[in-house]
Amino acid sequence: MISRVLVPMDESEMAERALRFALEAHPDAEIIVVHVVGQPSSMMGSAAGLALADDTEEEAEEQASDLFERAREIAAESGVEIETEVMAGHPARAVADASEGFDVVVIGSHSGSIADRLLVGNVAEKIVRGSAAPVTVVR
């Protein structure tokens, strides 16, 4: 029986599809939505704000607030409450590391633009390879 589901999310439509799938496929499970912000670095887009912030934890929460609000709206459509958590680091590595405490990870098949995928690599594929829990990839 699936009791804990990890759903990594970014701002993509595929991430929203993954959450909807998790809510439908595992209606009785505890669903935890995570958003991974890049490790602080002055060279990385949104992570630059994180690196320059006085309180990096607070800044990470702020960066994830709109995404988590959207995730809660999606869950509310199914009459479910979800938990949310911000993680820092490389997305694939952070999710794979967190997967150990879950029965399944549900992820979108891709996110971002083609340029993002070429530059960063396929995060979903890296999670599938590195996850301690089974992974469901949603298209």
From TrEMBL:
Residue ranges of domain UspA in the record: 1-139
Coiled coil regions, renumbered to chain: none
Gene3D superfamilies: HUPs
Matches recorded under InterPro entries: Rossmann-like_a/b/a_fold, Universal_stress_UspA, UspA
Cited CDD domains: USP-like
Domain of life, source organism: Archaea
Annotated Pfam families: Usp
The family this protein is said to belong to: Belongs to the universal stress protein A family.
Name under which the protein is recorded: UspA domain protein
Species lineage: Archaea, Methanobacteriati, Methanobacteriota, Stenosarchaea group, Halobacteria
